[in-house]
Amino acid sequence: xxxxxxxxxxxxxxxxxxxxxxxxxxxxxxxxxxxxxxxxxxxxxxxxxxxxxxxxxxxxxxxxxxxxxxxxxxxxxxxxxxxxxxxxxxxxxxxxxxxxxxxxxxxxxxxxxxxxxxxxxxxxxxxxxxxxxxxxxxxxxxxxxxxxxxxxxxxxxxxxxxxxxxxxxxxxxxxxxxxxxxxxxxxxxxxxxxxxxxxxxxxxxxxxxxxxxxxxxxxxxxxxxxxxxxxxxxxxxxxxxxxxxxxxxxxxxxxxxxxxxxxxxxxxxxxxxxxxxxxxxxxxxxxxxxxxxxxxxxxxxxxxxxxxxxxxxxxxxxxxxxxxxxxxxxxxxxxxxxxxxxxxxxxxxxxxxxxxxxxxxxxxxxxxxxxxxxxxxxxxxxxxxxxxxxxxxxxxxxxxxxxxxxxxxxxxxxxxxxxxxxxxxxxxxxxxxxxxxxxxxxxxxxxxxxxxxxxxxxxxxxxxxxxxxxxxxxxxxxxxxxxxxxxxxxxxxxxxxxxxxxxxxxxxxxxxxxxxxxxxxxxxxxxxxxxxxxxxxxxxxxxxxxxxxxxxxxxxxxxxxxxxxxxxxxxxxxxxxxxxxxxxxxxxxxxxxxxxxxxxxxxxxxxxxxxxxxxxxxxxxxxxxxxxxxxxxxxxxxxxxxxxxxxxxxxxxxxxxxxxxxxxxxxxxxxxxxxxxxxxxxxxxxxxxxxxxxxxxxxxxxxxxxxxxxxxxxxxxxxxxxxxxxxxxxxxxxxxxxxxxxxxxxxxxxxxxxxxxxxxxxxxxxxxxxxxxxxxxxxxxxxxxxxxxxxxxxxxxxxxxxxxxxxxxxxxxxxxxxxxxxxxxxxxx
Length: 829
What we know:
Shape: globular
Radius of gyration: 28 Å
Helix content: 40-55%
Mean pLDDT: 95
Structural class: alpha/beta
Number of strands: 29
Number of helices: 28
Low-confidence stretches: none
Distance between the termini: 27 Å
Strand order of the largest sheet: 16-15-14-5-2-1-20-17
């Protein structure tokens, strides 16, 4: 296997094509990248901005260059010596008329050759939640008509043209279509004869006949657990791998598959042992990646969490808790909030899936429990899950899953209104057959496919917008309830990576992260000065008190939302307050505000917009950028300066660790510059590669302090670090990880470790909690020093960032290696 030494994520679509990717390859080569890591490239729904709504797995999207454009990119990659990793989406497709498989199912129902490709409950007609009102109302209002499309009659709803089953179109011709369109009884009877039923989109959460991806009705689950369907989905993917044009695959949302291990075993057998393979998988808490999966690792969300732990100040947690509680008027019980969010999600947003499980369980349990009791017990069990899912399959039950189920049962029984006996009966129904027979029953599979989406939507897309104490910790893969600030815990996680996934990706920004890596790095510094931050927020709230609108359901924005807005703005603030910059920031910020309010689901959400509330909060947010609000903007900028300076140091520490820790560094497009983005779609904006290329070519002429001030230091650090990785790939691919002790007065403000293999060694030293040091990184380290192992004393190492040579003794003074540059990368020749 040709292991990557680094990956560079490119987001195709939104104007970024294969030919534009070809044009930037010389820049990526100069940066030191070994593998391009591409977002999904297969045909997607018309206008797709991301490619995860695949419409044809076996066609490369013409919108980004098609097969010919891909071939040009492939040839250019080979010419420059790059590998290519593709992001693939096996678990869902677009439930769109653009999708020929789905269109066939709509037209022919169970007669379609693709009727079993999708996870559809064929006990009823296929539900299509596309209407803005119930069908009878839409028909009465004349919104549903008949038309002729490509010579065939179709049922039209505005621009949506639904095919009709061939057995139902007799008498519908170009001559009769207008007359029949006005016959409501005929339309209703015709609709009743179709394999599908058009339904009001708001009813999808209560009733849907197909499995969705998360709660997105526009994405339908695909049954790749069927070998024939696996072959249909992967035909082009496997062709590209076997031809040598693709060197690795990234599997999207592996937990959404019926049986992740069986799928990965089948995929590995198809692509062979030499294809790099990683999965998108969130590891919660102490969860460990399954070691029998035939993969190199995950895409790195757990690494993001480890960095957040390391760079946050745990010693000030109580102060921050108090400041947040004072703002709200009461302390937050985060676990209770988590349970409430999951309860609402499983019983309301995923009501259709809960009903399906309840039906299956009722058929098995019989009259021992009422339907309501079964439903409540299943919901309590889902709520009690601390991780995304279990992995019970036909190979049996893993020991860790047995232990987890015991924990879940105990937690579910703690629910106030659920009888313990009901939990026991339902747990046995869900998992008993699988445990006793070593074969996962349908209900077990269905349940395992539900807990992940409920967790993702209730935590990442609900709780993370409700609990705003320190939003840098509200990140995919993180848990704001977990303690932070432990150097020892960070080292333990990195040591574990050596054995668990030494070749997994190390991610700090992705297309799914809630904010850019440099925005988080800046916001970590708030944990060092919670009183300063709280006092500033109180002052800014006073400045804008007149902008708070009193609505019937409370103030808009409420204090917690104000706290969120100021933190979010702090993450993207550039320090420039000219009208053009403020307008640009505002145009990015207001869509974020809308998304945050709707994801939080407190007073508004995506399906039931509270327009008055949203308008009031947006008006408040817009006021922050007003030209006549300079008093606030100047004060905000003055408060933020030390946090911004500390954030740049945190960003360098974060980056150097990513470049040298066990694993493979993944650079998200443009994040080698200063990544102050907000959640998608803001983090998918186009990248100015010409500017990045020019900066890389010229930046070495400036000092590190000048590069830090200009925001170009991270790019230089990446280029230097990747050059070392490319020169010593074996050291980073299979070398040891050894934590090093730090002594002296500022020992809590630094972390150090050794990577070594044979005679080759790399010593990494980075600062942490820089707000208490000098904001620009030129700290007075005093007697602070790294203690070196005996085997590494009396060796000459070169700091690759400053070219300074150092003879290593028993200790290494930080003042000697962190003077010219705030981080150190020392390596043997």
